[in-house]
Structures are given as structure tokens and as C-alpha cells.
Amino acid sequence: MPTTNDHVPASWSAAVLCRFPVAPGHRQCQSHPIARFAAASLLSLGLLGCQSQQTPSSSSAGSPPPGLHRDASASRAAFLAAYPVFMHPRCLNCHPAGDVPLQGEDSHLHAQNVKRGPDGKGLYALKCANCHQDTNLAGENMPPGNPNWRLPLPGMRLVFQGKAPAELARQFKDPKLNGGKTLEQLLHHVSEDKLVLGGWDPGDGRAKPPLSHVEFAQKMRQWIENGAVIPE
Questions:
Q1: Nearest-angstrom CA–CA distance, 108 and 14
Q2: Distance (Å, rounded) from C-alpha 49 to C-alpha 152?
Q3: Which residues pair with 103 in a beta bridge?
Q4: pLDDT (tens digit, 9 = 90+) per residue, 94-116?
Q5: d(Cα 94, Cα 64) in Å, to the nearest integer?
Q6: Residue 71's pLDDT band (boundaries 50, 70, 90)?
């Protein structure tokens, strides 16, 4: 293994050695242990100084500064474009303000006195799965289906009904109100969850949301990636 002295350039050694006194009759600027050590120390400090200036901090490496390339206007516009989907019966009917799901294109209270229940899947014998099977039933206005058909849990109601855009955006950003999700998880939910995707396959006789699912997911991505701005 080379010693520290092996890395000292000759020009550095000469510059330092010439400042040390030498015995009479000896060649000026000869090798001197103390001088060699001093030169090595200066070189080491110089290299460390360069490294400290060139090496990015671990907190910023691999990621842009906060807010870089974010467009607040684009974020606000994207959420407002997605908002009508949340207010459409295909989404709104399962996100009511109360414990009774909504039904139909006019979002009236569900018939048969159906209630949310402790797991969101109905109360007592009136379970969602009694009518809502794993897939849509054939025929106009027959019950749509999904293996996980339910309302949000009573402790996390995720209400859409009656929410203005700013209120809904705040709810989506707050893990205490959105089911404990990060914005990344929220984006995955609206993009991939089959219960959400069912809104665009509602069965015969039902209208689909005003945006395609691809457009809706793109708008939500634009909202989040540009800062998830609250549309006041």
C-alpha cells in the first residue's frame, strides 16, 4: 500500500522543502521528513476541499429542489377538470354524507333501507353482496358488481357529497381524512383500483363519468405532480 508521501507531487515537495533550513554543505531543497509530511498534509487538505465543493449533499442527490418545474396554475386546472368525475353518480353514490348509499342518476337514497354497517358492506342481513355480485348483472339498471363492493368505513367516510373543489382537495391531501394514503397511493388508487375502474363499466342503463378513465387519471397525476394545489 503506498504511503501518504507517495502521492505528493514533486512540485509540491520542492515548494515546501525549500522553506526548511538545511545544514551547511547539504543540497538546498533536499528531502526532509517534516517537510514531506507538511506537503502531504497540504495536498490532503486541498483534495478534501475540492471534494466538499463538488459532492452534492445526500438530501438533494437524485432529486430536484422542492417546487422545481411545478406549475400551480396547471395543478389547479387539472383538479377542477377532474372534479366533475367525483361529483358524478358513479363516484358520488358510494361516497354519501350519511350512512345510506345513494342510487340512480339523480343520486337518491338507496331503497330497501340499506345502511353502511361497521365494515362498509351493509348492516345486519342487508349486505351489499346480496345484490351486488362479483360482476355486473345482465339487463338494464340491474345491480352493478365488484368483489369488493362497499362503502368507505364508518371511521373514514371519505365523503364527496356536498364538497366544493377546495374542500375535496384538502380531504384528499390529508391522510387523516383520505384513508391514510400518501398522494402517490391516492394516485395509484384512482388509476388502478378495480372498484374505481367499475365506474366506467357501470352496466346497462347507466351513464359513465364525463371524462374517460385515462383522462381522469391523467388529470389527477397532473394535479399531484404540479404540487397538489388547493383550487381556492
A1: 92
A2: 57
A3: 108
A4: 999 999 999 999 999 999 999 99
A5: 39
A6: very high
